[in-house]
Write a structure and sequence with these properties.
Elements (H helix, E strand, L loop, with lengths): L2 E2 L2 H14 L4 H19 L9 E6 L3 H15 L3 E6 L8 H10 L5 E3 L12 E5 L11 H11 L7 E5 L24 E5 L11 H5 L1 E5 L11 E3 L5 H4 L12 E5 L7 H12 L4 E6 L4 H5 L6 E4 L3 H7 L5 E6 L8 H9 L3 E4 L2 H4 L5 H5 L6 E3 L3 H7 L1 H8 L10 H12 L2 E4 L3 E5 L5 E5 L14 H14 L4 H19 L7 H13 L2
Parallel strand pairs: 2-3, 2-5, 3-4, 5-6, 6-7, 7-8, 9-18, 10-11, 10-13, 11-12, 13-14, 14-15, 15-16
Antiparallel strand pairs: 1-9, 16-17, 17-18
Helix pairs in contact: 2-3, 3-4, 8-17, 8-19, 10-11, 14-15, 15-16, 17-18, 18-19
Length: 509
């Protein structure tokens, strides 16, 4: 798994490298500029043939210093480069000023106010105004320029952001202010590691494509979030001497008559992901309906909490899934399931039931639980956290989905997986991961009814197989996207479990 950093974590890594003598600020700035130019030419190979025209927009800080390097390197390649600076020339930080002085031998420095009149005459526009250091909304000339670019004033020019598009909070992916002041990029080039804002909230919509340039730093950051990564094949494979009980027995509770589809989807996913046995528990009236559609999945009559308790006397049942299609009024069933202390996933109705009294749920949860709310369910359980997410961010770093899910996991005392294109996962100790369906893992086909029920089943099946809750949530979320991408357009929820064997074979599991 790769780290995803906050702006403060990245500054600390750079500062440590400079203090240790491993690099100077000028070294890092030069490497960053070279990394951006290399990324531009790799992403748009046709630009490798000069003459080309570029506009470089430099800000008043070190991001602007990167811009001066980029301008000089493009000039050296035979490009016609025009450079514009926000703020007073001569007030730059020392390293940025040194690169400004080097650029002075190549061309002029023009005021940013002149840039709007030159936008449509460019092949490339480099946004080096603010990067990760932005703590306030764009205003004045920078905002006017952002609005003009958003309105199409740059024509066919390719827009590249140095680190992250100006106007975007690099820690949250949220546009600071009223949401209009951001320079949208076709390509964003980060350094050393991506930032949270590349994956969260509106970040991907404004970043275009993302590339990460190596600038010679080795260090990581303690407590950094990670991206979910390709699972090790051994984690998913079944040994030659294994038998069905070696891989656990998952119990999925379904709703009453006409409400069993979600439970059946979850059960099918749990079986496909490798749980040795899966049983669908349902009220007596729904037995015939479910029996007509189940084969490898077993069925059990579970009318109430007493019958669930009796069923759980079988300690081979080691993972439970409650919520998909369960219906309201199942408080007692949920209580009995949680009292058993097994690995338990709660989703959908099992969460909404507690909308009026979330503390009643939190009091029953234990460390082997996973909650998988979507945004609406999250707001019912954690209304204060959701309200903070909904507040307009006027300063940075802004409150993020990652901040919210970390706080939720600490409050609930278990793993929380907040679903969305930027799914975020956290455990009570603060460990967190992002499973983003963006860039080369985009999976828009997951916007279909029942996809979340399948995710619930995948995570439950992995817990039945012995994965710890956080590990099961991360692995399950990764597999969910992989299965969707394997099928592609036209996907419906029923297709997802059937793609898991294809994904497993590709992994060598």
């Amino acid at each position: 798994m790769s780290e995803v950093l906050t702006s403060a974590q990245m500054r600390a890594i750079e500062g440590a490298a400079i203090r240790s003598g491993a690099a100077t600020g000028l070294d890092l700035m030069e490497r960053a500029g070279r990394g951006v130019v290399a990324a531009i030419l790799a992403h748009w190979p046709t630009l490798a043939t000069p003459p080309r025209r570029a506009m470089v927009l430099c800000g008043p800080g070190n991001n602007g210093g990167d811009g001066f390097v980029i301008a000089r390197l493009l000039h050296e390649r035979g490009w016609k480069v025009t450079l514009f600076l926000l703020g007073q020339d001569g007030n730059l930080p020392p390293d940025a000023q040194a690169n400004r002085d080097r650029w002075a031998r190549c061309g002029a420095v023009r005021p940013l106010s002149d840039a709007r009149h030159r936008l449509d005459a460019q092949d490339l526009v480099v946004d080096a105004l603010f990067g990760t250091g932005l703590a306030r909304p764009l205003d004045g000339e920078a905002r006017e320029l952002a609005m003009a670019i958003s309105a199409g004033a740059a024509g066919d020019a390719r827009i590249v952001a140095v680190d992250i598009p100006s106007g975007l909070c690099s820690d949250s992916g949220r546009v600071l202010g009223d949401g209009a002041g951001v320079i949208p990029a076709a390509l964003s080039v980060s350094f050393h590691r991506p930032r949270l804002g590349h994956y969260l909230a509106q970040g991907p919509a404004h970043c275009g494509w993302l590339r990460v340039a190596d600038i010679g730093l080795e260090a990581g950051a303690a407590g950094a979030a990670t991206l979910t990564g390709t699972p090790a094949p051994a984690r998913l494979a079944k040994g030659r001497l294994a038998h069905k009980y070696s891989h656990g027995h998952a119990l999925v509770l379904a709703g009453g008559t006409g409400r069993g589809g979600a439970g059946r989807l979850a059960a099918r996913a749990a079986l496909r992901v490798g749980a040795g046995l899966v049983t669908l528990g349902c009220p007596p009236a729904a037995m015939q309906e479910n029996a007509a559609q189940l084969n490898a999945i077993m069925q059990a009559r579970i009318a109430d909490a007493a019958e669930l308790g009796a069923r759980l006397q079988d300690d081979r049942i080691n993972a439970l899934c409650l919520g998909p299609g369960l219906g309201q009024g199942a408080d007692a069933l949920i209580g009995a399931a949680l009292a058993a202390g097994r690995a338990t996933l709660l989703d959908a109705d099992a969460l909404s039931i507690f909308a009026a009294a979330p503390d009643a749920l939190f009091a029953q949860l234990h460390a082997r639980c996973v909650l998988t709310p979507h945004d609406g369910e999250f707001a019912r359980l954690f209304p204060d956290l959701a309200a903070r997410l909904g507040t307009r961010p006027d300063t940075g770093p802004a409150w993020s989905r990652l901040d919210a899910v970390r706080a939720a996991a600490a409050r609930a005392g278990c793993v929380v997986l907040l679903k969305g294109p930027d799914t975020v996962i956290a455990d009570p100790a603060g460990r967190c991961a992002i499973n983003a369906a963006h860039y080369d893992r985009a999976a828009p086909w997951l916007a279909t009814a029942g996809a979340g029920d399948v995710l619930s089943g995948i995570v439950t099946g992995l817990m039945a197989r012995g994965l710890a809750p956080m590990q099961a949530a991360e692995t399950g979320a990764w597999l969910h996207i992989a299965a969707a991408r394997q099928f592609g357009p036209g996907l419906i929820a029923e297709d997802l479990p059937e793609m898991l064997p294809v994904v497993f074979r590709a992994l060598g599991a």
